[in-house]
Amino acid sequence: MTSPSCPNEACILSIGSPAKVIRHGFFLVWCGQRRRYRCRGCGRTFSARTNTPYFGLGCSSRTFERVAHLSVEGMSCAAIARIEGIAWHTADRWLDKAAGLAQRFNERNIYGIPLVELQADELRTFVPCKAKPTWVFTSMEVCSRLWSSTVVGRRSYANTKALFSDTLLRGDVVGTPLIMTDGFEFYERVIRRLLGVACIYAQVIKTWRKDRVTRVERRAVIGTTRRLEKALDESEDSAHANTAYIERLNLTIRQSVAYLHRRSPTHARCEKRLHRQLELVRCHYNFIRRHTSLRFGRELRTPAMVAGLRDGVCSFRDVFAFA
Fold it and tell me: Is residue 285 within 8 Å of residue 145, measured between CB atoms?
């Protein structure tokens, strides 16, 4: 194994080239001992984790990544702490750091998405109490199954506009995109303002009675019925106007985020914490998790691979080490 380079930028600038780094004993940590290094140029000692996301965790990198994996599988912070034998505050601190790294990875890598067929929806939760309902807006590119954007907040025109603005900013419109949502009143206003007649927009309105869908109405809102039928004929995924894919994504989100479980004592204390956890799940869903619906031969692909954002499957180590 080669020795790491000196993390001191002033050392490199003063010498003109990286100085030689030598081994300089060991130091004790909670889970054992680690190698210490010393730079002959500036005399500074450091470890291989200095200036990396794993620095100062007091655990192995595998433990940190395992905690992140348990979190995106729907386990609460308290349950993770019990399984790993760590304090609740330690697990919470690790998850907050992992979520921040995942959010940075999402912001820099989810760009250039081919927007061919879009679906959008919202799911309800509460922060911090049931008297204050909070909504999670999500948008999805159906062809690649890519979870493109998320907005957390009130069910308002501003948040609806923020969702579609972020989706269009991260994507490249291909031809005349097909957009399908439910009958929420602000979707039509936002889509007309941002895209106008440059898209085909359909609404799927369901009538519920005693927790059952008794009627489904499909209507073309932007574009004629003939244009909608033609777009559906050309679609590789949708035979008729539907919101099935975004609703399936919402179910995956509820299963993956402990804060969104139904009839659970676990809930977020603030919108920021909920949004950070959603960013961690979003990163896992797009870049790490293989989808059976995206099978190509024997290969199981991720949405990022289908959308052309990545060449292969990522891991949490790739995400956390991303500069």
Answer: no
